[in-house]
């Protein structure tokens, strides 16, 4: 296998995962702040529930990306 090519792919993948993690964090922060902003407003409880669902989904997806980031990082830095 061409190690230089493999490292190039892994490096690009690592950068992509880093960006994904950051994008998920922006969403997580926005959803968290919006949920706080809504508070107990009776007209916004359905929207709040929707945001809470999105928050949970984004947290899970971010964690998946973090796991894959860690795996790629290990490969680039001599781990298995």
Summarize the structure.
The chain has 80 residues and is mostly helical. The protein has one domain. The chain has helices at 3-38, 45-76.
End-to-end Cα distance: 16 Å
Mean pLDDT: 96
Order of helices and strands: HH
Strand content of the residues, in percent?
under 5%
Number of strands: 0
Class by helix and strand content? mainly alpha
Morphology call: rod-shaped
The total domain count is: 1
Compute the number of helices.
2
Task: Explain what this protein looks like in three dimensions.
By secondary structure, this protein is mainly α. It has one domain (3-76). Helix content is 85%, strand content 0%. The protein is built from two helices and no strands. The chain has helices at residues 3-38, 45-76. Helix 1 (3-38) packs antiparallel against helix 2. It starts with a helix and ends with a helix. The relative contact order is 0.16.
